[in-house]
């Protein structure tokens, strides 16, 4: 299949694009608003459908595509999350895109590249909170959360993949997903969280501009998460910290403890029984319950 660029022209008002509540993205307008001399974003392409934008962009990265390439799909037929989990959603119900970054060109050492998915989370949460009017929190390491009917729900996820000397960061964000379309009960969307707008064009522009700002600062400080403020900002917006959690680790192991910090390497630090603090670099995190601080009132279970 050869994906085709979609620009949201009036001729698209029939056929696939007949759902007026979910109009196509306007690729030409996105390029006009985001691609500029000296800016991060260099190429923006919108395709009607593809298997996975990450898979496609990894191939392009290895072939030498420039930093700042953005690939957006109106629909993904084989979208992937962490641990190769499937990501499915109706066409044009969300923002499904990948970005190509080459931090080594700016002198960022490879050991700091692991901060890129956390950076994308911070930038996306800030942008969506402003543009959609919805409080958006972070769940370590790669999820964005919103509150729907008083319950914590997953709004979207982030997947970063190394491609030689590049990193491809993919994001999937539920925008207009309705209750009867949720893939699992724990999923949510901006619409279900009461967003003031579900217009995907300005939402996408806001997210990409926020990523460019954070990436520019992070790169300016050679990827130092403390010096550029990323580590502190991530911790401030992370709903995992201060919670009792279960870390499901590779190899079938698990740890239970209070999430107390995100360290300089982007690892989640757990305070386990016996007072031992253990960093977790990879794994699934399950929020078990809140652990109130001394100055906080008791949490309502």
UniProtKB/TrEMBL annotation:
UniProt xrefs under NCBIfam families: birA_ligase (TIGR00121)
Protein name, as recorded: biotin--[biotin carboxyl-carrier protein] ligase
InterPro entries in the record: aa-tRNA-synth_II/BPL/LPL, Biotin_CoA_COase_ligase, BPL_C, BPL_LPL_catalytic
Annotated segments matching region Disordered: 1-20
Swiss-Prot/TrEMBL keywords: Biotin, Ligase
Keyword Chaperone tagged: no
Segments forming domain BPL/LPL catalytic: 33-219
Enzyme class: ligase
GO MF, any single term: biotin--[biotin carboxyl-carrier protein] ligase activity
Lineage of the species this protein comes from: Bacteria, Bacillati, Actinomycetota, Actinomycetes, Kitasatosporales
Record EC number: 6.3.4.15
Annotated PROSITE patterns: BPL_LPL_CATALYTIC (PS51733)
């Amino acid at each position: 299949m050869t994906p085709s660029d979609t620009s949201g022209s009036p001729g698209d008002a029939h056929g696939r694009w007949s759902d007026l509540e979910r109009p196509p993205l306007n690729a030409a307008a996105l390029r006009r608003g985001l691609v500029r001399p000296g800016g991060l974003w260099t190429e923006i392409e919108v395709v009607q459908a593809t298997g996975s934008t990450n898979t496609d962009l990894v191939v392009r990265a290895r072939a030498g595509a420039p930093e700042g390439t953005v690939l957006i799909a109106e629909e993904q037929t084989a979208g992937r999350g962490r641990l190769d989990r499937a990501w499915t959603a109706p066409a044009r119900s969300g923002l499904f895109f990948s970005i190509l970054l080459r931090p080594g060109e700016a002198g960022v050492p490879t050991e700091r590249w692991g901060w890129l998915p956390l950076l994308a989370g911070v930038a996306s949460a800030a942008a969506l909170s402003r543009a959609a009017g919805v409080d958006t929190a972070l769940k370590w390491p790669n999820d964005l959360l919103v509150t729907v009917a008083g319950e914590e729900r997953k709004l979207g996820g982030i997947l970063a993949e190394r491609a030689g000397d590049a990193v491809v960061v993919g994001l999937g964000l539920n925008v207009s997903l309705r209750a009867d379309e949720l893939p699992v009960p724990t999923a949510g969307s901006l619409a279900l969280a009461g967003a003031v707008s579900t217009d995907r064009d300005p939402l996408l522009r806001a997210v990409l501009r926020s990523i460019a700002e954070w990436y520019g600062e992070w790169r300016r400080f050679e990827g130092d998460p403390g010096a550029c403020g990323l580590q502190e900002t991530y911790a401030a917006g992370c709903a995992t910290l201060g919670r009792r959690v279960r870390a499901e680790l590779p190899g079938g192991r698990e740890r239970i403890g209070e999430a107390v910090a995100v360290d300089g390497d982007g690892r989640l630090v757990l305070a386990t029984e016996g007072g031992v603090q253990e960093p977790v670099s990879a794994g699934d995190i399950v929020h078990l319950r809140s652990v109130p601080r001394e100055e906080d009132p008791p949490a309502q279970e």
